[in-house]
Write a structure and sequence with these properties.
Blueprint: H1 9-59, H2 64-160
Helix pairs in contact: 1-2
């Protein structure tokens, strides 16, 4: 019987390539999310430093120019913290989208792989049926030959007697 050949193997290969690309994209987006989260932590620390600096300046006598500069610094730090929070949230959405794309690509590939496995099993069963039919036919032929041999042997024995 013929060797097993799955007609959709190229499609499986393409889907496997797509799955690997989705994995790479997810990895890159997760790395970017990690960078954004680290920036967010740094911004939160800077914002906290600016609040503490303004609080300390207000507790002791300071000139108004210094207080205004510290307040502007605090406002800039809080604005940067807000912007960085937005960038981090957007990157989290990107990561989730990439994760969903990977799951979908994996599902598409697995569907075809399951189909391939079913077809391979069908092929094996067909080969097994064909082999069994051959063995059955061979057994019948041997049986017929054996019966003829026995009959011939009996005829020869009767002739001798």
């Amino acid at each position: 019987m013929k060797r097993f050949n799955f007609r959709l193997q190229r499609v499986i290969d393409v889907r496997q390539t797509k799955e690997k690309e989705c994995q790479r994209e997810l990895s890159r987006s997760q790395q970017e999310l990690l960078r954004q989260e680290n920036r967010l932590k740094r911004c939160a620390l800077e914002s906290e430093k600016s609040r503490e600096g303004l609080k300390k300046a207000l507790e002791r006598p300071s000139n108004i120019g210094k207080l205004i500069a510290l307040d502007k610094w605090r406002n800039r730090q809080e604005d940067e913290l807000d912007r960085q929070s937005d960038r981090t949230r957007k990157q989290q959405v990107v990561v989730e989208d990439k994760r969903k794309a990977l799951v979908q690509a994996s599902k598409e590939k697995k569907i075809l792989e399951r189909l391939r496995e079913r077809r391979l099993e069908e092929h094996r069963m067909a080969v097994q049926r064909e082999e069994q039919a051959f063995l059955d036919e061979l057994g019948c032929r041997i049986g017929r030959s054996w019966r003829r041999f026995q009959e011939a042997d009996e005829v020869r024995s009767e002739k001798r007697d």
